[in-house]
Amino acid sequence: MIDLSQPWALVFLLVAGLLAGAVNAVAGGGSLLVFPALLGVGFPPLAANVTNSVAQWPGYAGLVLGARRELPGQGRRIAVTAVAAALGSGVGCTLLLVLPTSVFDAVVPVLVILASLTMAVGPWLKRRIGDPAARGRDRTPALLVAVFLAAVYGGYFGGALGVVLISALSLFAHDELRRLNALKGVLSLVVATVTVVVFALGAPVDWLAVALLAPTTLVGGYVGALVARRMPETLLRWAVVLLGLAVGVALLFT
User: Fold this and answer.
1) Sites in the chain below the pLDDT cut of 50
2) What is the rounded distance in angstroms from the CA atom of residue 166 to the CA atom of residue 219?
3) If we measure between CA atoms, which residue out of 222, 230, 234 comes closest to residue 24?
4) How far is 142 from 48, CA to CA, in rounded Å?
């Protein structure tokens, strides 16, 4: 689907992948950069979605590697939420593959817009939620349900999955946000792993695009995780929000 005679398209995707990996680590929602980039070089929405989902895997791996110091002491929480994430992602992937393409084409503009709005209200949600470390123990049943539903969304579309996950973790888990952000990376990696397996078997993944995007999302995710504590995210967040809204509105009228 990529025309190798157009070098600008290759450079465009490489830059989008690098930025997406960094955005995932710092603010979440990096896939909202890659998805319109793939549309911009000629991919239809469904192919752009599954290719984007597969290409995000290395970025999540890089995020987990960069944030690994925040994971010790979360073993049980990681285990139970990872199971919920894997099951939810499987359901979401299955829905994407068994429902008609026309359903995805109709739903994806709404999902893009909702994902963008979720990113926009992310800081407000954090203020309303407060510091999870100041509360009591994890509300495990509610946490598992929230992670499962977030993973269903992630398996079906996945734009701003990190924002959805960190909101769920902040609501129902008792820990510091920096540690929950590391857990978010693990769960994102679980969801992405399921999508890679399922989509590799039954979806129109463009593997050349994946080969171009994967290394840059890995580098971007690793570097982004290392600088996440210092880098102001407001400007980055709103740039992604505005881009996502523009893409969602454009898809509504195409």
Assistant:
1) 4
2) 22
3) 222
4) 33
Alpha helices in the chain (DSSP H): 7-26, 31-40, 45-55, 57-66, 75-98, 101-120, 122-129, 140-156, 161-172, 177-202, 207-227, 234-252
190-236: per-residue pLDDT in tens? 999 999 999 988 888 888 888 888 888 777 777 766 665 565 556 66
Mean confidence (pLDDT) of the chain: 80
Please give the pLDDT value at position 151. 94
Cβ count within 10 A of residue 127: 8
What does the DSSP assignment read for 103-138?
Answer: HHHHHHHHHHHHHHHHHHTHHHHHHHH--GGGS-S-
Tokens 């970025």, residue? 59
Question: Could you tell me which residues come within 8 angstroms of residue 62 by beta carbon, excluding any fewer than 6 positions away?
Answer: 21, 25, 217, 218, 219, 220, 221, 222, 223, 224, 225
Report the C-alpha gap between 95 and 64 in whole angstroms.
27
